[in-house]
Each structure stands twice: as structure tokens, then as C-alpha cells.
Queue: 4 jobs
Job 1
Amino acid sequence: MATSQKSPPSSQNEAPNESSEMDDAYAAFLNQANQDAGGGVQSQSQTRSQSQSTFATTKAVDTDVPAALQQLPRTFYTSDTDEPFEAVSLRWSKKKLPDEDEFQALISHSGGQQQQQQQQQQEVSISVSIMDAKAFDPKGHYGAVLDAVAKAAADGGGGRHNRRVYRVGHGGTRVEYYVVALDGTHSRLVGVKARAVES
């Protein structure tokens, strides 16, 4: 009498379940890895944004900007960030260019209580030093910019000889360069400024 033998359960029936579990685990692993990578990118972006926002707020214009500066083609100061030059026109009634302390007071905002509180929250203090125009532009890349500043001052009775470069440190590698000249006729300093990150 022939007896029927039960064959052992086929492994083919179990393979789909094992494969499915492995696929699910691998998919979960990939999802986690992508989330971590995405978080890293976001963190770098936030760091970059925070780095840019740690510049203290400085003043550049509080009176009319001379035509010579308005007509200056868009020019960038070369550093780690390549920022454009912006026009500067600040009221200044003295007959000579400001020293470091005077210039720091001139470009610091002294607005209302809310503005002062915002500045305190920034916790960024600036330091000002004076540098020679040749040290600012040793390779002659910014001749058109320097000429525009001289022309703006000459239109107001000043000129190339009363031009000065102020280096404004914002802590770490962040600086601003103000290139200004005295326009005695209109009681103002005229020129340009640019931000830079110098690693």
C-alpha cells in the first residue's frame, strides 16, 4: 500500500515574505539616510545664512547720492563672497575726513529704541581702521570705482587727494570696505562700500 508522503514546506512559499521584509528594511534605511543628508544640507544653508546675518547694520546713505556714483556700472569686490559695490553718501559738516572713531560713529545706526535693541541682539561690534588706497587695490582692479569716487568728490569741490579707505571689521573674517572722499560743497562724504568675507 503506497503511502503518501508529505513533502516539507516549499521554501518558495517563504521567499516572497523574506524578500518583502528585506525590501522594507532597505527602504527604511534609505529613507533615514536621505533624511540625514537633507538635514545636513539644511544645516549648511542655515549656517551660511547665519554667517551673512552676522554683519552689523551699518549706514551708507542719508543724503543725496552724486550722479557719478549712480552711473557707476555694477562692479563686484572680489572675496569669498564677491559682493557688489554700493553707493555711499553721508552727511559730514567738518572740513577734513573723519578719523577712525568719528567714522565708526558716523556709520553706526543711532535710531529709536527698537533699532538699538535689534543691534544689541546682533552682538556684533565693529572696528574701524584706515588703509591706503594702494593697499586696498594693489593690482588695479577697481580703477573705475576709485575714479568714480574722485569724480563725485570733485563735482563737490573735493578730489582724488582727499580720498580715504576705511576697513570696517565685523568680527572674524567679515569686513566692509568704505572708499570715500570729502564733498565740502555739499557737506557730505561720498563714495562706495562693499562687503567681503576673507578666509
Job 2
Amino acid sequence: MVLEATMIVVDNSESSRNGDYVPSRWEAQSDAVNLIFSAKTQANPESSVGLMSMGGKGPEVLVTLTTDFGKVLDGIHRTKIRGSTHLATGIQIAGLALKHRQNKSQRQRIIVFTCSPIEESEKDLVKLAKRMKKNNISIDFIAFGDLEPDNTKKLELFNENIKGGDGSHLAIIPPGPSLLSDTLVTTPILSADGVAPRGGGAEEGGAEGGGSGFEFGIDPSTDPELALALRMSMEEEKARQEKEGKKDEPKGESLEGIPEENQPLLNAQGEASGSGGDKMDEDKKESSESKEGKKDGDGDGDKMDTA
């Protein structure tokens, strides 16, 4: 898989307090950051991920490029929600962090979450996009929250000017009942890393759930108890069918010509039983009788000599 160094830029502005995404815009970002980290490191264990915020007084690097998931979690928990976003400055600082990566063979990628109004002008964004493309940096945008036409237009213009060989993607995710991370899995941002939807593979869900993408056509994240009950019911039915199939199988040919051996493996003397053992017992009995007869004959001869 692709060896990448990825900087994740989260939007911790006041707009991230909104609860139009489950459970909130900030919590939805945190869950998605966990998913992205897992996807990148599982696709290639040598890939590294960093984290930074772009809200408040200015952008802040929370975690430099690392493969330690604990550091990323700690960075998320230390982040405070405040102020407004600084999109252009945040992208430039993320680019500098990628420039100082230890493994220079890693491809450079920035994933930006944005859920607040974009204050930068279209001209400034186009200029920044061309500069990032010149430095071979791919940038993915995850737009959610404030999806005003002005915002989406700026992001689309930025994406058009940065598209390159490695691919830069724009995912616009409107509010809905599904989690932000579950919707993110279906976008090109993560589908290229071979991430399967939560709750089962897409192929199995399409075959058994009517093409809904989830096993049995139900999203386990929304109703885990029902999904578990359906899975257990399917396993019980499968086991019952296998048991009935074994009963209906034709039995093998009867071994009437072969006598059954019900006798124990060893006889009373601790020797092997069976036809061979019985024959040996008979031979021993005959030899002992012949020895006794000979002994008697010798005894009689001695008596006659004495007389």
C-alpha cells in the first residue's frame, strides 16, 4: 500500500459546538480522526499521522508525525474549542510539518476538516493550491456543517487547482442520521485505503441486505441490538440446516459379512484376545498337556525299573 505522511487539520472553532451532527460537530471530527489514523497505519505500518488545529488565536501543531495512536488521542483531548478558523495559515503550517518528516520516501498528504465559514478569498486559495501542488502535497477536504454556496464554491475551486497524480479529494457531507465517520468511509478519501464500512463488508451487505452496504440491511451503529439478534438468528438457522442435512444423508453400506468383535482387547491373562489369541491359548494348552503326559510316562518307567 501507499506509504504516506498525513497531517490532519481539525476545525476547533466555535462553529464546531453545533449539534447538527451526531453527537456534535467536534465529537464527530474526533471519531473521524480515529478512523483516519487507523486506516492509514493499517494500510501501511510505516505511514505516520500528525494532528493540528486551526481555530482559536491561530493554528497549533498538537502532535507531530507519529505512529503512536495514544499521542493522537491525547492531542484531541487537549484541544479547546474557541475562536474562528485560519484555513490558509493552517494548511501552510501543515505543509511545513510534512517537509520535516523523517522518512522522505513518504508521500505528503493533508486532510482538512472544515465546518465554519471560510474567510479567505478565492484568489488567495487558488494561489495556495498551486503552491501546495508544486510541493507535491495532496490535500483532502472534508466539508460539513456550514455548507453555504460560497464555502463550497471556494473549496471546489481549490480542489480543481490542486488535483494531481496522487489525487486530492473533496468530500461534502451534509447532516444526517449516520455518523460522520461512517459516511467518510464511502468517500475516495478512505476508500483508496481499502477501509470496509463498519458492521460488515460492502459485498456481504449488498448480497444479504439488498445492496444497502450493511449486513442484513441494518446499520449496526444505529441499532446494535437488532443487528446482533439478526446475526445470532442466522447462525442458529444455519446450524439447524446443517444438522438436518446430516440426518438426510444416506447411510453407508452395511457390513454384514464382517463379524463384529465385541470381546475385550485383552483376556483374563492380560494377553491379546481374538482368533489369534485363542489359537495361541489352544497351542499352549496342547503343549502343556503333552508335557504332562510325557512326565507321567517317565514316572511309570522309573517305577518299572525299581521293581
Job 3
Amino acid sequence: MDRLTSYFGISPDLITDLVLANRILAYHKVLDTFGHISVRCHVKSNGVDEDCYLQATYHAPSLVHTQDIALFSVRTGEPVDPEEKRKGALERHIHAGLYRARPDVQAVLHCHAPILVTYSILPNAESKTKLEPVIHVGSSVGRHIPIYEIADKFGRNTDLLIKTAELGDDLAKVFIPTVGMVLMRGHGATIASKSNVKDLVHKGIYAVINATIMRDATLLAAATGGVVKPLSDGEVEACGDWVSAVHRSWPAWVAELGLSKDEHL
């Protein structure tokens, strides 16, 4: 972290928040050992003037520390620091591609939460299996949740991973301004925040809770002849982004990690 703060001028608080975000999302089972989260920043220091993002190097989210955070270029998806030799996340181009396409996006999360993967392999037309917001705190990912189909452009012989800039740009095309989350068929989900990394943690946790509730409600409806009633466009808009709620949630999420006062992140 010392070089990030002293040479590149990155805020230590931003780095700490990103480390905590990794651990909180792992604790809540949003991230497994392969998921990742990033936060945007602009570096103007020591001859560098570039749009960048912070992301952990190749570590499981639950084990991320401040020294594991590296600086990547939005333009290339590669490390900004020529001294950075550590392996980055294999799918870091998810983040770079979305930041390039959406200047308003400030933080990006990619996860493989099983419930979201389940909805990614179901039909996404006007069907009863389409994932939609059904609870007010789940509205922040948007009313419409599309499914990205990598095979549409790259065929059925890929490993489904977003490992290149071309793949990252293709995924980013699905993120029109009204979309906050995209499911990725057979793979997972990518979620964006226009606010900050704390807001993105909120979105990630409640995206999984919303999907779980919708699955349970769908099963009950099938057994009883009922109908699942999603939020309307007007209700989603009225619920807003729930950014203000993060100030209440964040300290509780950090406390759940059980960090001691002397523990260094």
C-alpha cells in the first residue's frame, strides 16, 4: 500500500474500504474464492495522468490485505506501475471494459453466487423464470436484469471467462445506463455502482437476497397456484439507489468480520 499512497497518491481510506469490501462480500457468500471487486480512481502523480481502478491481485477475497491491492489502467486493463509483477485477476477486463464504456460507473463487482448463476441459465424472455427485483432493498440493481450470452459473438467453444479487452468490451455493451446488474450465462453476474465501493457491497448482498426470495416465492407459487409479483418500474424508481442506507449497514458488516483493534488489514 505504501507505494500506492506515496507514489501514486491513492487515498489509504479507499484502499482500506476495498479490502473490507472483499472480506464482507466473502463473509456474505456473494464472492467465492474467484470473484473480485474494484473501485475507480484517477491518478495524477509523478508523470502519471490516467483513469485507473484498484483491484486485488490474484487472491481469494476473504484473504485480501492492503498490500494485495494493485493499480490497473482503465485504458488497457494492465498494471499502471511498471514495478508491479504480481498476477492480476484473470477477468480484470470485466472491470476495465465496463469503466471504459460507462464513465459514470465508480465500482464494479463480479461474482459467482450460485443463486445468480442459476438464474443465468434460465430463459430471460417474458417468462416466469426471469430474475426481477421483488423486494425494495433489492431494487438498486435495476428493474431489468439482462443475461449476457458470450456465445452470440464468440461461439460455443469458449471457457466463458472474460480474459481479454475484446471480451470485456463486449460484456460492457449490455450495461446500458439503466442496467445495474448483468447475469452471465453459466458463469455468474457483474454488478456496477455509480456511487462508491460501499454502495456496491450493498448492491451485491441484496442482489443475492432478492434472487433467493424470488426463487422461494416462485416455488411456493408453483405449489399453490399463486403468482409472484415483482416491483413495478415506478416502485424501483421510487426506492432509489439506497446509497444513504450504506452508512447504517457498513459498520455492522465490518463488525461481523470480527477484526481485532490491533489487526492490520
Job 4
Amino acid sequence: MAHTNGYAVIRGAVRLDLIQEAAVMISKGSLKVIYQRVKYNEFEVPGVCSQIRDEFMASSDKAPVAALLDRTIVPTPKHINIGIFHESNPDPTKAMTAGEGKVYVTVALTDLNPKTGWFVLLKGSHRRESKKTISIAQWEQVSLDVKAGDAIVWRGDLGYLHSSGGGGSFMTIVFV
């Protein structure tokens, strides 16, 4: 159940030809870096990413998005971003969150798992009493393994840990 866990996986959410086009663009190094974050670099968004967003909105199962937003109708996405994870030396005791009141749909442009930089999710941690701190030992750590074209739908207040891996490419659609 998506709402209970704080996340859901939608297999084959987007056509592979669009995914591959975006993955090639990001891997060529021709896109301008907008932000260099602790775990990934975020790039300017090429037009194909709008097509990916539109296909997700038209064709994919949006029930997990609605459930995680606590709504019956999925709103228009607020924005999209694209990035590549880089290797890091994360603090295994430091849990993160992305943004309360938001739901993220991370579409895998390449296979994503902790070896390629994807986060380790803290299952159900969005239900914690204190939104300021996360006791890692209290929550089951979930290492997802998704293929290019799959989507991970997750709440912004879900706790996660950075992984040490890198190289995976992604696009994220943000709903508020």
C-alpha cells in the first residue's frame, strides 16, 4: 500500500525510446549543470523530459500519486528536474527528507539502485511523530532496484539515506 509505506514503484511507467533519448542527452555532457548538490548534479531540462512528463500523466497509473498526496485527483506537476547521481561518502546515520507536502515521481533514465546512487528509503518514516528528526533504527531500510522506464513515487517527508554509489540518471516530476 503506497500511503502506508510512503512510496510505490510503477514498472514500465514510460516508453523506453523517450527514456533512452533523455539518457543519451544527459550522458553526452552537453546539458548545462544548474546545481551541484551533495548527491547529484542537476541539469537544464531538455524538451524530451516534457514528453516524458506528458506520457506519465497520460498513460501511467497515477493512483499512487493521488494516494500519497491524500487527494482523489492528481494535480498538474509543479516542475521537473533531471540529474546524475555521483559517488559520495554518506553519513549512514544521517537521514534526509525532500520536502513536506510534496510527492516526487522519479523516473529512472538508467537502472537505479544504491550502487548507481539511488537512495535507501526508510519505509513508513513519513508517519513519524517528529518531523524534525528521524531515528533510523526505528524504520525498515528499503533498497529498491528499478529499471530504466520505471518510476518511484515517494512522499517528500519520507526519510531516506544517501547511498555511496553513483552514475545513475533520473528525471523527477514534482507534485504539490
